[in-house]
């Protein structure tokens, strides 16, 4: 990393993209072994046998099992949402870190972080914003949809509680889109900062 810094930006994209295959492998294994608890409880098998049995049960139905577990929420949704939320937040941090001058970090907290937190559904469900209306239009409920944190909190609400929440088939694609967008912006901003 020493030197003039011209090669540093070229190392960022391979580092980020090289982390995606291990995440995909772990996700694949989690889905193939997702029936272990059910096998142990119903068939009363040992741990090694239950791993093999789960592998066979999921078998050629990998995508159906994955979609069912993602849409069902609960612990399986938590296993997929937590890493996605971490990557999304890291991508946002990279973006904000490269676009804001270090001297303006207090402004970053006042202008970006506080509004994101208070309008991110952390302290209330997204569904309760329907009561804030102008002329019958729930404007705040629509406005907060540009905040990635609302999808993260609604996803965790779906996985951990029985309260009303946004549909998971909306949460996952939007979070993946935000992640790709912020990764692209962050890597671009990092390259500009390092190569300038």
Structure characterization notes:
With 196 residues, this protein is mostly helical. It is built from 10 helices and no strands. Helix content is 72%, strand content 0%.
Model regions low in confidence, pLDDT < 50 over at least 5 residues: none
Distance between the termini: 15 Å
Beta-strand portion reads: under 5%
User: Order of SSEs, N→C?
Assistant: HHHHHHHHHH
Tell me how many strands there are: 0
Largest sheet: none
General shape:
flat
List the helices and strands and how they pair.
Elements: H1 8-18, H2 20-32, H3 36-43, H4 47-58, H5 62-72, H6 74-99, H7 105-118, H8 139-143, H9 148-160, H10 168-195
Helix pairs in contact: 1-10, 3-4, 5-6, 6-9, 6-10, 9-10
Short description:
The chain is mainly α. Helices cover 72% and strands 0% of the residues. The protein is built from 10 helices and no strands.
Spell out the key features of this protein:
single chain, 196 residues, mainly alpha, 10 helices, 72% helix, flat
């Amino acid at each position: 990393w020493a030197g003039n810094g011209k090669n540093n930006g070229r190392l960022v994209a391979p580092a980020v993209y090289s982390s995606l295959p291990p995440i995909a492998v772990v996700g694949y294994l989690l889905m193939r072994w997702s029936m272990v608890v059910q096998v142990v409880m119903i068939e009363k098998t040992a741990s090694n046998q239950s791993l093999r049995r789960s592998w066979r049960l999921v078998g050629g139905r990998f995508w159906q099992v994955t979609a069912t577990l993602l849409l069902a929420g609960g612990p399986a949704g938590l296993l997929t949402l937590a890493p996605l939320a971490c990557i999304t937040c890291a991508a946002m941090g990279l973006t904000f870190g490269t676009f804001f001058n270090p001297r303006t970090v207090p402004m970053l907290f006042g202008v970006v972080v506080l509004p994101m937190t208070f309008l991110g559904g952390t302290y209330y469900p997204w569904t309760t914003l329907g009561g804030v209306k102008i002329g019958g239009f729930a404007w705040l409920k629509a406005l907060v949809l540009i905040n990635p944190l609302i999808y993260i909190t609604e996803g965790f609400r779906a996985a951990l509680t029985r309260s009303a929440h946004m549909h998971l088939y909306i949460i996952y694609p939007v979070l993946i889109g935000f992640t790709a967008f912020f990764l692209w912006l962050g890597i671009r901003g990092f390259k500009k900062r390092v190569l300038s």
